[in-house]
Design brief:
single chain; 136 residues; alpha/beta; Rossmann fold; seven-stranded mixed beta sheet; 3 helices; 22% helix; transmembrane helix; purine salvage
């Protein structure tokens, strides 16, 4: 997944739950840091500062709050989102916003299956995948 881009990340972000698994494996293969992007996590459960954003409607028409501890993604980091599946692109768009809120550089989103409903996002994010839904 890390080889889908020319730029090597310093941090891989993976949304819970399957994105965290695929993201952690990608980060380990690249020898870089990994950050789990948590869903509906209350930052009050610890004393660390968090960055959080709410998604546009996802594939189930839900708005999900994603976030991570602020100190895990820093200005100067190059960040790649890794996930298993892209459908509406809401998770990837929110991840990009979180990365930019942290002052880091967004590389793009890499996923196993591209099932994007909005083709413009492939270019805007950019999103690259191992498989396209039409080939499954």
């Amino acid at each position: 997944m890390g080889s889908l881009y020319d730029v090597t990340p310093t941090v891989v972000v993976g949304p819970v739950s399957r994105g965290a698994l695929v993201g952690a494996l990608t980060a380990a293969a690249l020898g870089v840091g990994f950050v789990e992007m948590r869903k509906n996590q209350a930052p009050a459960t610890d004393s660390d500062r968090w960055v959080q954003r709410t998604t546009a409607p996802d594939y189930r028409d839900r708005h999900v709050v994603f976030g991570f501890r602020r100190d895990l993604v820093r200005a100067g980091d190059r960040v790649l989102l890794v996930d298993d599946w892209a459908d509406t692109g809401a998770t990837a768009v929110t991840a990009r916003q979180l990365v930019e809120d942290s002052g880091a550089q967004w590389i793009g989103a890499a996923c196993i299956v591209d099932a994007l409903t909005d083709a413009r996002l492939r270019h805007d994010l950019p999103l690259r995948a191992l498989l396209n839904i039409r080939t499954l």
